[in-house]
Amino acid sequence: MLGYIHMCGIFAYFGPQKDSLPMVIAGLKKLEYRGYDSWGIADKRGDEIFIHKQTGKIGDFEAQELERCEELKGRKKPETQKNSISMGHSRWATHGGVTDSNAHPHYSENREIVLIHNGIFENYLEVKEKLVSQGHLFRSETDTEVLAHLIEELNKKMDFESAVKKALKEVEGRYAVLVMSQKENKIMAARRGSPLIVGVGKAKDEFFIASDIPAFISETNQVMYLDDDQVITINENGAIFNDLATGEAIEKRIVEIHWKEETAEKGDFPHFMIKEITEQKETLYRAINQDEKLLEKAAAEINKAFGTYFIGCGTAGKVCMTGEYFFAEIAKKHVNFSFGSEFPAYHHFLTDRSLIVAVSQSGETADTLEALEVAKKKGAKIISIVNVESSTMARMSDLVIPIKAGREIAVASTKATTSQLAILALLAHACAGKISEGRRVLAETASEINDMLNPRYEEHIKEVAEKIKDAESMYIIGRGKNYPMALEAAIKLQEVTYIHAEGFAGGELKHGPLALITKNTPCIVFTANDENRKAMLSNAQEIKARGGMIIGIGPRKEEIFDEWIRVPDAGELSPIVNIIPVQILAYQIAVIRQNNPDMPRNLAKSVTVK
Q1: pLDDT tens, 216-250?
Q2: Is 605 an annotated catalytic residue?
């Protein structure tokens, strides 16, 4: 595998709009939260495809500037061209640096084939060597351009559609690809492991293709899902889906999405991150308001499985790690935890009696999806806990438990995290035959969080943020079920503050980390009213004795704390309440340091391709 690529943005339009490029620009702007460093657009007019691409942010580009772009001058749709066909892409650099030439779209050597691509073409070097030997010259450093040249070469021997399909069969890796040809009034798209969704417009033969629904939700809420190893061809006769391997036509049903566009807007909040933190007043209630029969069915699968594996990546991985503690304490049951990227070590243990519980916000995380693919081949059952019920992960699963957090736009996960924790705690209660008790304690915790999240509380945390905003490093410690939250707290601080942060198990301090403590080093200490409280305070004393600044997060104000951020006494649910003030702290430090908390540098919302 060739490293990681983040989830970039794709938007395309086919339909009667006279000029669809402004719509493409608007669609890409709605996908900015996914992260990118360059962008580009392509517009088909008659037998010519006009392309503009550049580095930087599309948010700074207005539609009226299109007329001033040298490459787009002379665009005019011929009377014979019934529909507008255009597409756009926002790119994270993987193969090749951040340059205009490496930005998408890319075109073939004869400039007739134009495409955009999310993913990594893993065997592109061997294909490129073959094409070079055939006389092809390349303008960029990207793997994507190789695919355009491959389609061109195949198009010499077969029609455009057949060339695209054959080329994609030669691609190794995960991808989402859109292709246009100067000679064809159509657009083709295919996917394997990277999301693409088709929106069905209100006008006749009007279609949208995007990486995510928010890109076109203002235009339509009618969608068709493109699944792995499927290709769609859109022309004036409509949309045709085919299986990429067999070529067989596939019937697709139209699904109505019940989203409101304003859920993806900031409203009166300065950033999505603080809006989504505040929304935890409601999202926890929604998370625990699950169908009881669904919970009982999931619990029955966990109880009868011969080996249950909780898998997730990043923040979802820390949630799964916490799930180990929840199940041990609440259900008195052992479950296994693994990051999706580390799951290959467990593959040889899987049987048709195994159970995978996959946790994800997007449901499109590449490493987790690969684990599910292996699990399915072994006959294992799959339960997914996801925020996007229409995601690839959900469609691969035997049971789906929805997080119900609503759209999460900020890169740093907040409301989805606590909802995932709540559902795992509820499942642990269900496995112990205590669903009612689980709902009660979770509802009580949600009520106390509702009281906790207020302007005065945020202002207090902002005062703490001011005191540590210039720190070079900070550390977080926890014990038991709050150890994974120490790791998650470090992720939150890393993501948006750009301060070096690390989480440790409290008992591990004397095995190395204490050497990192210097005078006034900020150290966050998670406490709870549980069996670990005294040991945690002892660990805090070890830090303080070496000059560290102790920021206590817990239900009691302890004498050793230099700063105290109060949380409700949530007992076995302390991880849920303890992580929230760190979310706010990370946000406040980011704002003070003039970072963009919604779009951290070098990061994107999901990692969808290896």
Answers
A1: 988 998 999 888 899 999 998 899 999 999 999 99
A2: yes
